[in-house]
């Protein structure tokens, strides 16, 4: 049950710009992509999975917005 609750409560984000990964631990995405399974790393960075591609990695927090 806790896993189900977590699924429904997790925040989803939408990319508001294109981003090309600058390092192997980062993830690329396109404007409009949905980012899921997001964890805040610090003020500037998050970790998440791009729903369209299935790829996951670090991403800049100012390139996405909560939906």
Automatic annotation (TrEMBL):
Keyword Phosphoprotein belongs to the record: yes
Protein name: SH3 domain-containing protein
Entries under InterPro entries matching the protein: Lasp1_SH3 (IPR035630), LIM-SH3_domain_protein (IPR051759), SH3-like_dom_sf (IPR036028), SH3_domain (IPR001452)
Pfam families attached to this UniProt entry: SH3_1
Gene3D superfamilies linked to this entry: SH3 Domains
Organism listed in the record: Cirrhinus mrigala (Mrigala)
GO molecular function: actin binding
SUPFAM superfamilies given in the database record: SH3-domain (SSF50044)
Record keywords: Actin-binding, Cytoplasm, Cytoskeleton, Phosphoprotein, Repeat, SH3 domain
Localization, UniProt: Cytoplasm, Cytoskeleton
Stored SMART domains: SH3 (SM00326)
Chief site of localization: cytoplasm
GO cellular component: cytoplasm; cytoskeleton
Residues annotated as domain SH3: 8-67
